[in-house]
Design goal:
Shape: flat
Number of helices: 6
Distance between the termini: 36 Å
Strand order of the largest sheet: 1-2
Radius of gyration: 19 Å
Structural class: mainly alpha
Largest sheet: 2 strands, antiparallel
Amino acid sequence: MSQKPRAPRYADIFKGDPDKEAKAKEVWRDTIAWLDESGLLNARRIEIADRYARACAEYHVLYPIAAEEGPVKVGPNGGDVFNFNWSAVEKLNDRMAKFEDALLISPKAAQDKVAGKPPEGPKTKADDYLD
């Protein structure tokens, strides 16, 4: 791309939450800069970078709460109940990993890109002849 994309309006998206806003802006800038330097910046990855920045912002704020509370909390009746903050953090972590793979910024995806290897799939009979 010839010109850098405009950053989403994270101040409007995360109204009243300056921590999320700041983290989203930071992740957006870093991700777009990395994609641009790597020659990977395109319209599709710009959209994914926005979603990645939003997920990172949510994770950044929610993780300390979930880590302090742990996976199980004391429920209203005194018994153990599942902590939904813990579950949300796990789901955000999985989502961020998928975004990193799509953006080619995860260590595995970046290594495959550098090596020029196509993604590995199951071995077929034709592979013996292609090697």
